Amino acid sequence: xxxxxxxxxxxxxxxxxxxxxxARAHAFLDHSDPAVGSTVQTSPAVIxxxxxxxxxxxxxSVTVTDRSGATVNDPAEIDASDRTEFNVKxxxxxxxxxxxxxxxxxxxxxxxxxDFSFHVGGK
Amino acid sequence: xxxxxxxxxxxxxxxxxxxxxxxxxxxxxxxxPATLTMDDPGVGDELSxxxxxxxxxxxxxxxxxxxxxxKSITRDLGFAVNGDYASQRSAAQGANGWDNLTLTLKDELPxxxxxxxxxxxxxxxxxxxxxxxxxxxxxxxxxxxxxxPTFYIGKGLGDLPIDALRPFAVTxxxxxxFSDSPQLTPSAWNYAAxxxxxxxxxxxxxxxxxxxxxxxRLTPLVEVSMTxxxxxxxxxxxxxxxxxxxxxxxxxxxxxxxxxxATSQSQSLGFIVQFHLFLDDAAWKTILGKPxxxxxxxx
Lengths: 123, 299
Hints:
The structure holds 2 protein chains of 2 kinds.
Chain A: H1 3-19, E1 29-33, E2 39-40, E3 46-51, E4 61-65, E5 77-78, E6 85-89, E7 96-105, E8 111-120
Parallel strand pairs in A: 2-8
Antiparallel strand pairs in A: 1-3, 3-6, 4-7, 5-6, 7-8
Chain B: H1 3-15, E1 25-27, E2 30-32, E3 46-57, E4 60-72, E5 77-90, E6 94-98, E7 102-112, E8 117-126, H2 133-137, E9 146-156, E10 168-179, E11 188-197, H3 199-206, E12 218-229, E13 235-245, E14 249-258, H4 261-264, E15 270-278, H5 279-282
Antiparallel strand pairs in B: 1-2, 3-4, 3-15, 4-5, 5-6, 5-7, 7-8, 8-9, 9-10, 10-11, 11-12, 12-13, 13-14, 14-15
């Protein structure tokens, strides 16, 4: 059997299995604004987080903290028209590094959590 | 249809399937993907089908078409069934048939989320006499069974202070394989490790790079798997490769490079490819995709 046929067999079986499966999964961060690890010159009014799955609002949260651990955001809200998007209103941020921690429940009942940082006015 | 056209059609079908980003053993920020030549440090509902391994030998070539089904009993206790259909080819003769079945019982210990440290313990039992008699009689597959207590560990390096190093992770596996009949087949130590660099981790937790989305789903890695039988030479492979992780599945491909002289006497450069389906995502509504008992043993 040739390598080509082996690879083709692998992909063929994979394709059949995939098309038999519904598209639901753990929710992970897809992207954000400000972006993960980025630097913005002025304090953003809102941070937007987009996830790879729709979220359950009652069991999902986002917290933004400064270096001292103080919370600098109002309660986060999931966008009513796009349940993959979290919008987090921020207080006015001084120059520094901020940590965004998210804990979400996707509509397929999987819980995930994670964090990232962004910087205001340079590191 | 020619194989190349068949392959293109299959790839197209694959690419039109639902896709996005990430899964499997999850500990805090870290997702440890399912590795190919060793087991990952977690328990879950997964299906590896197929795992195709081709290894040239001095007299011909060996191809194995493998499968593995992992099923969670509780959220942190699971079992796995795996095996393969082996095909040996040489200029003089060939032999085909099913390899012996292997059963694994595995318990995932509570992970240290802050430090991305996952670990588990298990017992792997090779069931003798479950493979093809032709292969057994010709010595291609084991004639006797074995039992192997096994320790698995995974550590993400996300707590390092240097951003560029944070996507790195290491995993390891150590087992003592006790032969049912050491005079026929010696007992052995098996040990394996992997070094991984997760682009999904980089994108989600360190720095969102402006690169094609395809790149953000790759995890280049190298695996090393060795076995040291009592009284016999240590053999094994170094397996550099790359994984592509989507929402509900993963594809991995690695070269199999003989790790030492003893190994190169029995094989030359081979390769392994695998399609891996995350059943807890792809079949989350069914019993195939969730624990039989929705509890943790350790919490």
